[in-house]
Amino acid sequence: MSRITIDVLERQAEAMGLKVLESDIPGTTCGLYCDRLRTICLADWLNDRQRLCTLCHELVHAKYRDLGCGTRFGVKCERRARRETALTLISPSEFAMAEGTWDGDTWHMAAELDVTMQVLMDYRQILKDGLFAKRP
User: Three-state DSSP class for 42?
Assistant: First the structure.
């Protein structure tokens, strides 16, 4: 199975009519989606792996036209974005191979799968919760 690349995600954003900008976002926030402006802002300090995972995450928010984490639906929207990001970026077969190769070591597995630790932990939580059938 071929992995999703940043180019694929950028083309997806373009097809959705979204602008993707890099910006000096304050604090530790990696990315933001503004539905009113149909714009995704990515922190300009992200490495390639973080950029891939963050863009995928923000594209999920854009797909559902989420209004933001501060709304009463924010927790549900964020949970959905994290779940769909993990299921999009990690294939079951590659996860199984990485887990076997690295004996469950999360840092090495994340590096092997080219995802952040957060995305890997979200994928593991999906498996633990039995939510695997809900692939996007």
Answer: strand
The pLDDT value given to residue 22: 97
**Residues sharing a CB contact under 8 Å with residue 84, sequence separation 6 or more, in sequence order:** 60, 136
Q: What is the reported pLDDT for 130? A: 83
What is the chain's mean pLDDT, rounded? 92
Confidence label for 74 from pLDDT (cuts 50, 70 and 90): confident
CB 99 within 8 A of CB 124: no
Put residue 123 in one of left, alpha, beta given phi > 0 → left and psi -120 to 50 → alpha. Answer: alpha
Q: Does residue 125 register a pLDDT over 80? A: yes
For every residue of 13-35, DSSP letters joined together read HHHTT-EEEEE--STT--EEEET
CATH 3.60.21 at 6-128, yes or no:
no
Is residue 68 exposed (0-12), middle (13-18) or buried (19+ Cβ within 10 Å)? middle
State the CB neighbour count (10 A cutoff) for residue 75. Answer: 10
- The rounded percent of the chain whose pLDDT value lies above 90 is 82
